[in-house]
Amino acid sequence: MTDPLKLARLLALVTPLALLGGALAFQFWGGLYPCEMCWWQRYGHIAALVLALGSFALPARRWPVALAGLALAVAGLIGAFHAGVEYGWWQGITGCTSTVHFGGGDPLKEVMDAPLVRCDVVQWKLFGISLAGYNFLVSGAVAGAIFVLLGRAGKGGRA
Length: 159
Fold this sequence. Notes:
Elements: H1 4-28, H2 36-55, H3 63-86, E1 97-98, H4 107-113, E2 116-117, E3 125-126, E4 129-130, H5 131-153
Helix pairs in contact: 1-2, 1-3, 1-5, 2-3, 3-5
């Protein structure tokens, strides 16, 4: 039978890596620039990835994997909030961001000409679900799976 702690560690590593990779692919190849709330979700995935990598240095311990699962859960909850803002279910708490890149010309013109990335507008969706919504679904499900696996590993495992 597969060791639940090893499986939880693998999920904690692969999930944020895949989600960050997908976000970067949408950004650099798809032209979908992140808004401020998108960045907040990425910060949660970056934290989860760092913690998951750290869990390989302490392979018998559950706490780094649990923290990675918690970071994924937080990223998923931010995704749920962001999706609600995109769908107009509630008001966002942040301003939108710009994709300005200073190229050495007139900085004011570059700021004024830069596209604004709104947090309350869905840039891409599939089956009616935005990227923030998919982040909520995937991050939340995997975080739940990590905690279930850690619970199974806790029977006889070390903290």
